[in-house]
# Entry
Amino acid sequence: MENQELAKTVQELQDRVDKLEAKNSRLTMVLFSGDFDKVMAAFIIANGALAMGKEVTLFVTFWGLDALKKPTMGTAGKNILEKMVTIMRPKGPAKLPTSKMNFGGIGPKLFHYMMGKKNVEPLSSLIELAQEFGIRIVACQMSMDVMGIKSEDLIDGVEFGGVALMLGESYASNTTLFV
Amino acid sequence: MENQELAKTVQELQDRVDKLEAKNSRLTMVLFSGDFDKVMAAFIIANGALAMGKEVTLFVTFWGLDALKKPTMGTAGKNILEKMVTIMRPKGPAKLPTSKMNFGGIGPKLFHYMMGKKNVEPLSSLIELAQEFGIRIVACQMSMDVMGIKSEDLIDGVEFGGVALMLGESYASNTTLFV
Amino acid sequence: MENQELAKTVQELQDRVDKLEAKNSRLTMVLFSGDFDKVMAAFIIANGALAMGKEVTLFVTFWGLDALKKPTMGTAGKNILEKMVTIMRPKGPAKLPTSKMNFGGIGPKLFHYMMGKKNVEPLSSLIELAQEFGIRIVACQMSMDVMGIKSEDLIDGVEFGGVALMLGESYASNTTLFV
# Structure
């Protein structure tokens, strides 16, 4: 191989390695769960990664969408089953149940209290903080369709997309967590 | 370093980078859960990845095996505890409970209805589709042994293997999800 | 480009590719769940990876900490809510509930019996084995603070750290699972 040709090959290799290394600066999470403790874990990890300078994409699907709902979300323009799901599911971070020790909703309040005493930010602040730090939150369009959730039912600053977008982000990231 | 020697080193580097990049064409998932909604999520992700041309390995373990059971699975040749587990666990995609809002089995029916109205394929079709697209489904041999599940109890086209196979697939994939 | 300069560039590339390939020898898991079956899955995967010669870091947080508690863990020096959480949560692998078929604690006993008949090690042995094989277990400092868990409440050989440590391990690993 000629020296010049070799130099070109090395340049191409550098570009490919750059691309592989770029994954080290990105984190993708699929937030499937709507349990207070798991949503909390997802946003603590997200904020930790953002503080380390990483780009974070949170793809929110199924029950995870409960965490993004506005407390004022209503049932107007929804069919009977969508209305039922809207009424029965918690709306927003303050209403999420814990996966263990929920005690009819007292559990999350106790945890908020215990977290506050140890200076852990409440979930609503962690979400706001992540958004200020530039997290990319993508709500799963298909889950929204099935459950009759409209874009205006969710907090501001949320994008909408599907599994292809999530996979694209995952393949640009070193780490992808399913929470 | 001589030019010829350098060319050989660059060639070796190319092979190594090829191998690292090959991970971008593979996805591995561990399906631990047997909840309808999580199995649904796993197969939606699997079909999305297959449609993007990726090779997908689904390692199915613990409760996830419920999703692969034939509805006709019987208790012949099983000991008393294995019979009990066989009778008590759901058999096949049509019988899986949802992790939330199950309502004694009405929940999954409502979700199937709501998904049908939005043209989302039912779970059994998603599994068939994934198999047609060439998904590799591996049932965890150890879980099968412990719960007394025989190979003929599971749908056709399933392979059998252990944690070493799953880890091997994971290390050949950019993304591994534990669902 | 001069031959000598090119050789230097190739050397740098080799170092970068070495680093990317080094991820193939490491596994990171976040153990969030304290369910017997999920903790079992985490340690089976961990021991499988250790047997394959990989370095394994298990970051244990939230309910997962139940699996690391000494059965003798007491309530001395804890405030009233910490005492309540201490009393109500299971302490150690022998007390963990299963996520399905728990039947008030009979489920895990049945599974231990069924696993024993198939020569699967009990969970406490899997944890010991992993520690002998050199697993790195890191207990989440923030979760411990919030729930009032002290370092002496957990089994020996456990380190303490936060989300930054976990993410650092994850970015040095090809595979990270959230269990």
Summary: Chain A touches chain B at residues 1, 3, 6, 9-10, 13, 16-17, 20, 23, 30, 32, 34, 61-63, 81-82, 85, 88-89, 142, 145-148, 162-164, 166-167, 170-171, 176-178 (CB under 8 Å).
